[in-house]
Specification:
about 260 residues; about 25% strand
Length: about 260
């Protein structure tokens, strides 16, 4: 067996490492070679590997749009590895959702004339996703924007900031963050290995709205001049706590205010 406590201490000191688990090949030299052959996460664009092949309308057979008399809004969701419960919560908020592939241009999205645009979660390094960063930059100020996880990092880059790889990623369903607007502490689900560098953000234009209380990394931002906000963690609670479920109604409110202009 393996001394898991020793392994945790090693990773905490030296950072995340590639590893191989095998019940077939038991040769240490062979396994080490396989681990060393795994590509580094930094510089790896995985969003284009997991995105949908073509656009589609999300229709959940288990539930329809709410029938409480509220207006329905159209949202275009970029799929960088989107989770189904995000789409379910969008529908529950009264959104008609069209999901588009990661490399869909801003021009094509704007031609659909959505009421809002969503940038999803997904794997990998955000910096190689230049197509998504450029799209977010072009959409900013034209349509309300909301991003989660990788979408948050892409928005940070579109805002003019930089990202960096964490020594070891945030994984699990019990990460405490502080919401600066209210001072509330939220327990959040997280699964990311990159973060937005707060020192790279022009804080005269961008407000950092959420901080991670374990390591004081950026967990949320909003643009002060345009309808755009994002969070690093997973508010859709699938799995995880429901502390941040208010973000989906907040996106709707932003869309309503933008539409009323």
């Amino acid at each position: 067996g393996i001394d898991t406590r020793s392994l945790v201490l090693h990773l905490r000191t030296h950072g995340a490492k590639n590893g191989v688990l095998s019940a077939i090949d038991l040769d240490e030299a062979s396994l080490l070679k396989k681990a060393q052959a795994v590509p580094k996460m930094a510089g790896l664009d995985l969003a284009q590997e997991v995105t949908c092949a073509k656009s589609y309308e999300y229709k959940d057979a288990r539930r329809g749009l709410p029938t409480d008399g509220r207006k329905t809004y159209k949202v275009v969701a970029y799929d960088f590895g989107i989770k189904r419960n995000i789409l379910d919560l969008m529908r529950a908020e009264g959104f008609d959702v069209t999901v588009v592939p990661a490399k869909t241009s801003a021009e094509d999205v704007l031609a659909m004339n959505p009421d809002g645009v969503f940038l999803s979660n997904g794997p990998g390094d955000p910096e190689p996703c230049t197509y998504a960063i450029e799209a977010a930059r072009k959409i900013l100020g034209k349509k309300p924007l909301f991003g989660i996880c990788l979408g948050h990092q892409i928005m940070g880059l579109a805002f003019g900031g930089k990202t960096y790889k964490l020594k070891f990623g945030h994984r699990g369903a019990n990460h405490p963050i502080r919401f600066e607007e209210t001072g509330a502490i939220e327990i959040t689900s997280q699964n990311h290995g990159f973060c937005v560098d707060p020192n790279s953000i022009d804080q005269s234009k961008i407000e950092i709205t959420h901080w991670n209380l374990n390591d004081m990394t950026v967990e949320g931002m909003r643009h002060k001049e345009h309808p755009a906000f994002c969070v690093q963690y997973h508010p859709e609670a699938s799995p995880g706590p429901h502390d941040a479920s208010y973000l989906f109604p907040r996106f709707r409110k932003m869309i309503e205010e933008h539409a009323a202009r």
